[in-house]
Write a structure and sequence with these properties.
Helices cover about 20% and strands about 25% of the residues. The chain is α+β, with helices and mostly antiparallel strands. Strand 9 and strand 10 (about 185-190) form a beta hairpin. The model has no long low-confidence stretch (mean pLDDT about 90).
Length: about 270
């Protein structure tokens, strides 16, 4: 993919998301997955840090919202797990590679393959300003003004209706946000609540291996449960327009002296 057309820019601005085929080659996808397999094979997560990841409001407050392992993960590579993968002693019930929900949040800083993709010329192009519950990224990554954060969601395998592709409510990025995750002395909490959405409001966005989905920070999206026997590995990160933008100091994710937010163009 060498450029984004004016028509695609218009569609992104109208819908709040855009699917672009062929962002990575199959070989690049395979290399990222192979490196991740090595990382997972060597992971050593203490039992008290084996945190189940969720986008559900109440579960977020109960688990990762007060967990130091999550709150201090912004400048580290850490591991978060699906629900129901540990026994009552905290030991794995399933194989490690099948237990993971996500790995975050600093692959882009410490892993050369992932860093190179994040800072690649295609990402630097201008002109485009388990089940995951319906949400808006700006709930967690809040800027002033809003509309300055965009997610890059890269399919390292085919993402289909059966194995949990993304679903969007087109145009919902134009309605603002109703919920914010903020840091508190005890961890994190939420201001406001998400709206309730009907299933028929969402449209699926299946994407082939190597494809990219651009996600506006305020568009409502979700992914369904993987009901297939195939995995659905992705690499995702967010980019913020820095000029005239204030990163909210109450966001759970904050730059650190060890890892300031890197410029996309360095």
């Amino acid at each position: 993919m060498d450029f984004v057309t004016d028509e695609q820019v218009h569609k992104y601005r109208e819908d709040g998301y855009l699917v672009l085929d062929g962002f990575l080659s199959p070989e690049e996808c395979d290399a990222l997955r192979e490196r991740m397999a090595d990382i997972v094979e060597g992971m050593d997560v203490p039992q008290h840090c084996r945190l189940e990841f969720s986008t559900d409001h109440d579960e977020q407050i109960k688990s990762q919202g007060s967990a130091d392992y999550f709150l201090t993960s912004g400048d580290k590579i850490r591991f978060f797990f699906e629900k129901g993968v540990f026994d009552d002693k905290g030991d794995f019930i399933l194989k490690k590679e099948r237990s993971l929900n996500k790995i975050g949040h600093a692959l882009h800083a410490y892993e050369p393959l992932y860093k190179n993709i994040t800072h690649s010329p295609n990402v630097q192009q201008p002109e485009i300003g388990g089940e995951v519950m319906p949400h808006q990224d700006a709930t967690f990554l809040h800027t002033e003004p809003l509309g300055r954060v965009m997610g890059f969601w890269i399919a390292l395998e085919d993402a289909t209706l059966d194995n949990g592709c993304l679903w969007f409510i087109p145009g919902s990025h134009q309605n603002g946000i109703t919920r914010r995750m903020v840091r508190t002395p005890k961890g994190t909490d939420f201001i406001g609540r998400d709206n309730t959405y009907e299933d028929n409001q969402f449209l699926p966005a299946p994407v082939k291996k190597g494809g990219l989905v651009l996600i506006h920070g305020e568009v409502v999206h979700r992914s369904g449960q993987n009901t297939s026997q195939r995995s659905r590995h992705v690499y995702t990160f967010h980019v913020m327009e820095a000029e005239d933008t204030r990163w909210n100091p109450e966001n759970w994710l904050q730059p650190t002296p060890e890892l300031p937010f890197p410029s996309l163009y360095t």
